[in-house]
Design brief:
The protein has 758 residues and is an alpha/beta fold. The protein has 22 helices and 27 strands. The strands form seven sheets. Strands 10-16-15-14-11-13 form a six-stranded mixed β-sheet, with helices on both faces. A five-stranded parallel β-sheet has the order 1-3-4-6-9. The chain has a five-stranded mixed β-sheet with strand order 19-27-26-21-22, with no helix packed on it. The chain is globular and about 90 Å long. About 2% of the residues have low confidence.
C-alpha cells in the first residue's frame, strides 16, 4: 500500500473512522480502496481468538489454541531462547488463524505481589523483563505477526486500574517502570504499543504527550502504532494530539465524530489526523504484506508447551534429595491440582486450551506407583465437616505410602484481571492439609500452582517444594517429568518471595487512597529494597535449585578502568560438578561504590542460561555498557555515571554471589553545579577543585601549614586530621560558616565562588 497516497484519497469522515476499531478485534477496512480489516487477539501466552459473539474479557468462547506458560512462569526460565521459541510458535499459530497482531507481552513491573494480574507480567526487575520481552517480540514479528507491548505505563495494580492515578517521581519512572518498554521499542522493533487505562502523575496515559510522543517517539524512536487498552480513551482529540492512534474497541462507543468536529471547528490540525491515519494504515499494510500460509500442528506445539513449562518451574526446597522420586516408590498424590492443574489466570488472556493432561494421569501412564486422594475441594472450603473428612483421608493415604506429593496453590478465584489480592495467604484448608500430612509422612513434597508469591507457613516441615507457577496446558506433564527426574529443574525466581506481606516496600502505599497511589518506595522495589534493608526473605530474587551442582570460577574483566562511553566484557567459567545434566542461569549484578545519591545495593545487569553435562565446564561472556553503571539524574534529565569503583558480581541468585571483581569507571558527564555561600562542605568536595580549596583553608586555619590560599598544595601532603575533621564535623557546614569561624575572609570566598561559577 502507498500509505501517503491512500490517505490523500480519504474523506475527513473516513480518516476519522480509521482511528477506531471495527468492534472488538479488528481495525476498520475500506472496500473502495481495497483496505482490509486486520484482526488482533489477546495472547500473552496463547491465542485467544473469539468466534461468534465477541467480548473483551473472554466471557465468550474462543477457538482451541495451545496455552503456554504465563509471563510470571516464563520469566523464571531466565532464558532468551525460551522466549524466542514461544514467539515462533505463537507467530505460526497466528498466521494459521489469520491474526495480524497479538496483544502482549505485558512488561509492567511487579511493584506489589498483591497485583491480581501479576501472572501476566514478567518480573520485579526491569532488565530481566526487557530482555525476555524483546527476545519474544523479535521472534514473533519474524513470523510476520505484530506484537503490542503493554500496558504503557505504571499499570501495576487492578484496583482503580481504569481511573486511578499513579504518582511516580521521574527517577523512579526512568529506572524501574520504563526500561522494559524502552528495551522492547529500541531493540525489537515492536510494531505497536498499548497505552494503559490509568493516569500517570495526573494525566491519563491515553492523552499523555510526555509518554506517547516525547519519550516513546522522540526519545526512543518508536515508529509504530499506539493503541488504547480496551476502553481507555478519555478525551479523544486530546489523546490524538498527545500521540494516540487507534481507539479500541470500536462500534457505537467509538468517538470518531469528535475528531471530525474538532477538525472542522479548527481545534485539531488535520495534519495531526493524517499522521495518525498513516501510522494505522502502515500497520495494516505491514500485516497484509507479511501474511503467509503456515503449516501448524497442535500436537507439535503442545509438545513445545510441555518443554517450555519444564524450563520455567522452580525447585525451592529439596532436603535430603527427596527429589527426584523413584517410580517404584509408593507415592500418594494428594490434591485436586494433581488431576486438573491450575495452569493459567483469569481475564482477557484466558485461553481455550487444546489439550490438558494432569500430573496424576501422566504418572500412571509412565508406570509410576501412585495412589490418589482429593485432599481439598476448591469449590467448597466452608463445609468444615467435608474439609475434615478430606484431610483425614489424605493423612491415612499418606501414612500408608512411602512418600507424598501435595498439589496445592491458589484457586482460580484468587488471581484474575480486574481485582487485586488482599493477602499472600494460601487457602487455609490447604495449609491445614499440608501440615497434617507432613506430621505423618516425613517424605512430603509440595507442588505449588500460583502466578505470584504466597506465604508458606509449612515450608520447614516438608522436604521438597516445586513452584510450578501457571505453566500452561503442559503443566501436568512437565511436573511429572521433573518429579521423576526426566527433566532437571532450572527455573529461577524472577521475583522475591517475602516472609511477610508487611515487608514488601509498597505495603503502606498499595493500592492507594481515593484513586491515587504514590510510589513512595522510589527505586527500591523488589530485591533492591530487601537487600538495602538487609531483610530476611523466604526466597531471594534469582533463586532456584537443581538436581546437580555448579561451580563458578575464573572471573575476568577485559579492562580494569573504563570510561562510561566504552563497553566492558566480563567472562567467567561454570562447571557442572554433579552427576546429572543440568542448566544454570548465571546472573551478573553491578554494585556501585559509595556516593551521595541513594542507590540499590546491586542491580541485575546480565544473565545467561547454559546447559552442561556432568563434568563439563564452559566460559560465559557478558558485555556491559555505560548504562549498566548509571542512574537517572533529574538534574541533567539523562543517565549519569558517577566516577568511581563498581563491583561486578556473578552468582546463582541476588544473595548467592560466587565471584566478584572491581572496575573503575570514569564518568564523562558532569552534573550542573552552582557554587554559592549556602553550599555545604560535603557538596563542595565532590568536585576536585572544591576539595582542594577546603583542604587548603583547613590546613591554614588549623595552623598546619603556612601555605597561601592561592598556592596549590598536594592533597596527599595534608595531614589525616583534616580528612577526619571534614568527615566527622564539617560535611553539613555551609561555606558561609567558614567565614563566621574565621577560616577565611568573605572576599576570599566571593572570589572563589566567582571563579568556580565562571
Amino acid at each position: 500500500m502507498d500509505v501517503e497516497n491512500t490517505v490523500r484519497q480519504l474523506t475527513l469522515e473516513e480518516k476519522a473512522a480509521f482511528c477506531s476499531g471495527y468492534y472488538y478485534w479488528h481495525t476498520k477496512g475500506l472496500e473502495r480502496l481495497g483496505i482490509p480489516k486486520i484482526m488482533m487477539c489477546d495472547g500473552p501466552h496463547g491465542l485467544r481468538k473469539q468466534v461468534g459473539a465477541e467480548d473483551h474479557l473472554g466471557l465468550n468462547e474462543s477457538v482451541q489454541a495451545v496455552c503456554f506458560p504465563s509471563a510470571s512462569a516464563l520469566a523464571a526460565s531466565f532464558d532468551r531462547n525460551v522466549m524466542e521459541e514461544l514467539g515462533t510458535c505463537l507467530g505460526k499459530e497466528c498466521q494459521a488463524e489469520h491474526v495480524g497482531m497479538l496483544l502482549g507481552p505485558g512488561v509492567n513491573m511487579k511493584r506489589s505481589p498483591l497485583c491480581g494480574r501479576n501472572f501476566e507480567y514478567f518480573s520485579e526487575d526491569p532488565y530481566l523483563a526487557g530482555e525476555l520481552a524483546a527476545s519474544y517480540v523479535k521472534s514473533l514479528q519474524k513470523e510476520g505477526v505484530a506484537a503490542c507491548v503493554k500496558h504503557f505505563a505504571c499499570n501495576n495494580q487492578e484496583t482503580d486500574r481504569m481511573s486511578g492515578d499513579s504518582r511516580v517521581d521521574e527517577r523512579t519512572l526512568r529506572e524501574i517502570y520504563l526500561p522494559a518498554f524502552e528495551k522492547v521499542v529500541k531493540e525489537s522493533g515492536v510494531r505497536a504499543v498499548m497505552c494503559a487505562y490509568n493516569s500517570l502523575n495526573g494525566t491519563f496515559c491515553a492523552e499523555n504527550k510526555k509518554l506517547l510522543t516525547d519519550i516513546l517517539r522522540e526519545e526512543w524512536g518508536f515508529q509504530g502504532m499506539v493503541v488504547t487498552d480496551w476502553g481507555a480513551v478519555k478525551g479523544r482529540v486530546k489523546g490524538m494530539e498527545a500521540g494516540l492512534d487507534l481507539e479500541m474497541p470500536g462500534g457505537p462507543g467509538a468517538q470518531d465524530q469528535k475528531i471530525v468536529d474538532a477538525v472542522r471547528e479548527g481545534r485539531l490540525d488535520e495534519t495531526v489526523l493524517d499522521r495518525t491515519v498513516e501510522r494505522i494504515l502502515r500497520f495494516v499494510s505491514d500485516c497484509v504484506e507479511q501474511e503467509k500460509e503456515t503449516a501448524w500442528n497442535h500436537e507439535d506445539a503442545h509438545r513445545k508447551a510441555v518443554e517450555i513449562a519444564g524450563e520455567c518451574m522452580v525447585l525451592l526446597e529439596n532436603r535430603d534429595q527427596i527429589l527426584p522420586l523413584k517410580k517404584d516408590v509408593k507415592t500418594a498424590f494428594i490434591g485436586e491440582f494433581a488431576v486438573k492443574p491450575r495452569y493459567q489466570g483469569g481475564g482477557s488472556s484466558h485461553v481455550n486450551p487444546w489439550k490438558v493432561t494432569g500430573t496424576l494421569d501422566t504418572a500412571l501412564e509412565k508406570g509410576a506407583n501412585v495412589v490418589f486422594t482429593r485432599g481439598y475441594d476448591t469449590e467448597n472450603e466452608e463445609d468444615q465437616k467435608q474439609v475434615t473428612a478430606l484431610i483425614e483421608e489424605a493423612v491415612q493415604v499418606a501414612r500408608e505410602a512411602e512418600a507424598a506429593v501435595i498439589f496445592a496453590g491458589l484457586p482460580d478465584a484468587y488471581e484474575s484481571e480486574g481485582k487485586d489480592r488482599t493477602s499472600l495467604e494460601m487457602p487455609e484448608v490447604q495449609n491445614r492439609l499440608i501440615g497434617a500430612v507432613a506430621e505423618v509422612q516425613p517424605n512430603t513434597v509440595v507442588v505449588l500452582h500460583a502466578g505470584a508469591p504466597v506465604l508458606l507457613p509449612w515450608r520447614d516441615r516438608v522436604k521438597g517444594i516445586l513452584l510450578a507457577y501457571l505453566c500452561g496446558e503442559g503443566a501436568g506433564e512437565a511436573e511429572e517429568a521433573i518429579l521423576y527426574g526426566r527433566v532437571n529443574p532450572s527455573g529461577k525466581l524472577a521475583e522475591t518471595f517475602p516472609l511477610k506481606l508487611e515487608h514488601n516496600p509498597s505495603y503502606l502505599n498499595f493500592p492507594g487512597e481515593n484513586g491515587t497511589v504514590e510510589y513512595r518506595e522510589g527505586v527500591f522495589t523488589g530485591y533492591r529494597y530487601y537487600d538495602k534493608k538487609a531483610l530476611d526473605v523466604a526466597y531471594p530474587f534469582g533463586f532456584g535449585l537443581s538436581y546437580t551442582e555448579f561451580d563458578y570460577d575464573d572471573l575476568r574483566l577485559e579492562k580494569e578502568n573504563i570510561k562510561d562511553t566504552e563497553t566492558l566484557r566480563v567472562t567467567c567459567r561454570v562447571k557442572n560438578t554433579g552427576t546429572l545434566p543440568g542448566k544454570e542461569a548465571l546472573q551478573l549484578y553491578v554494585e556501585p561504590g559509595e556516593g551521595t545519591c541513594p542507590r540499590p545495593v546491586r542491580e541485575l545487569k546480565g544473565f545467561e542460561k547454559i546447559s552442561l553435562m556432568p563434568g563439563e565446564s564452559r566460559k560465559v561472556s557478558f558485555v556491559l555498557d555505560g548504562r549498566a553503571f548509571a542512574y537517572y539524574s533529574t538534574e541533567i534529565s539523562d543517565w549519569y555515571v558517577p566516577s568511581g569503583d563498581y563491583r561486578i558480581q556473578i552468582g546463582a541468585s541476588s544473595r548467592d554471589l560466587r565471584l566478584e571483581k572491581t572496575v573503575h569507571v570514569e564518568g564523562t558527564k558532569n552534573l550542573p553545579v552552582h557554587y554559592c555561600a549556602s553550599m555545604t562542605v560535603g557538596q563542595l568536595i565532590r568536585e576536585e577543585k572544591g576539595r582542594q580549596f577546603v583542604m587548603k583553608i583547613l590546613a591554614k586555619y588549623m595552623h598546619l601549614t603556612e601555605l597561601e590560599i592561592e598556592e596549590q598544595p598536594d592533597i596527599e601532603d595534608c595531614p589525616e586530621i583534616i580528612e577526619n575533621t571534614i568527615k566527622n564535623t564539617m560535611m553539613g557546614m555551609p561555606l558561609a560558616s567558614m567565614v563566621t569561624y574565621g577560616a577565611l575572609k568573605e572576599e576570599q570566598l566571593e572570589a572563589f565562588l566567582e571563579k568556580m561559577n565562571s
